[in-house]
Amino acid sequence: MSEFKQIFIANSMYAEFLYLLRFPEKVDTTLFLVGPSCVQVDVPNRVPIVGPKQEANLPAYREFLSMQTYLLLRGKRVPCYGNVETIFSNFFVNNFPFYPITDGLWDVKKFPQYLMNPQRFPKCYAVKYPGALDIEDERLEYMNIHALWKKMTPAEQKRFADRFGANDKVFSKFSKRKILLVTQPLAEDKIIPEREKIALYQSILSQYDASEVIIKPHPRELTDWTKIFPDIPVAPRSMPVELLCLMMSHLEKMVTFYSTAACTVLPAEKVDFYAKDFDQLYMMDEGRMDGNVPLHVASFFNLELLKEKNHFNWLRLPDNHFYKG
After folding, report:
1. Predicted local confidence at residue 282, as pLDDT
2. 316 with 232, same domain?
3. Is 1 helix (H, G, I), strand (E, B) or coil?
4. Which domain holds residue 38?
5. What is the reported pTM?
6. Are residues 134 and 191 in the same domain?
7. Which residues of the chain have pLDDT under 50?
8. What is the CATH number of the domain that holds 78?
9. Is 160 part of any domain?
10. DSSP string of 200-259?
């Protein structure tokens, strides 16, 4: 059994991407505990964990997880990195030195709270979203994705990309395409029905030359975009959109509907950012399919603040552009 020196726990592929990018030297000595939103990544010591279907079973589930972790770590209290806001993080937040890694604008709203408790959260790691997190603190480190990537040697970059299935065979399909469509799990997160989600992206793609487009699905999506758009190559769900942009310097445009990836990977003038008001949100009481905290609105970041701080090409979809019902 490996001698684990730290834990990584998350229910987000992006958080895992950030941890591997920031701490490549820790990979072999890390116990990775990952939820269902973390699609397969090639790292050692990776243990998938799935929460109970019924909330009544959560205490027993957490007890089992704590005992399993105790055995794997042989009773040691090692540093723990990753997501705070998941149903399976509480045990680790309460029993280990915890180093939050933000993976979206939802998390950064919590960072002031984390910084007020240095005993529980010795240091925090975040990606700085314009207009979302303007905090300066000695315990808060802003990770620059582009700078961390450039620090790696070509061999290290290749190994890093291989972990996410970003190999030459995959990229050969994308070599001459310059427009990246980044989709969202709108149906999977119970925001709108699947038919409406598909019609929404059909409406968006009608504005572009399909021969120039690559589709990057969200890791939580279940939609088979190869059947909807058979002539457009689809990037693997296991490949973070940030990695795709780092490796494809020839990209000229990102097209997105409410994806926060638009805030960090390409210059704002290269982003077509679509928005729309939904007449009805199809939320379920048990929350999202991945077991994270339920969403209560279609967009969980401040759209008006983003518009003020980011110079995207802001576009709006009229209600009559796609299916409703």
Report:
1. 39
2. yes
3. coil
4. 6-154
5. 0.79
6. no
7. 1, 279-302, 320-325
8. 3.40.50
9. no
10. HHHHHHTTS-GGGEEEE--TT----HHHHSTTS-B--TTS-HHHHHHH-TT--EEEEES-
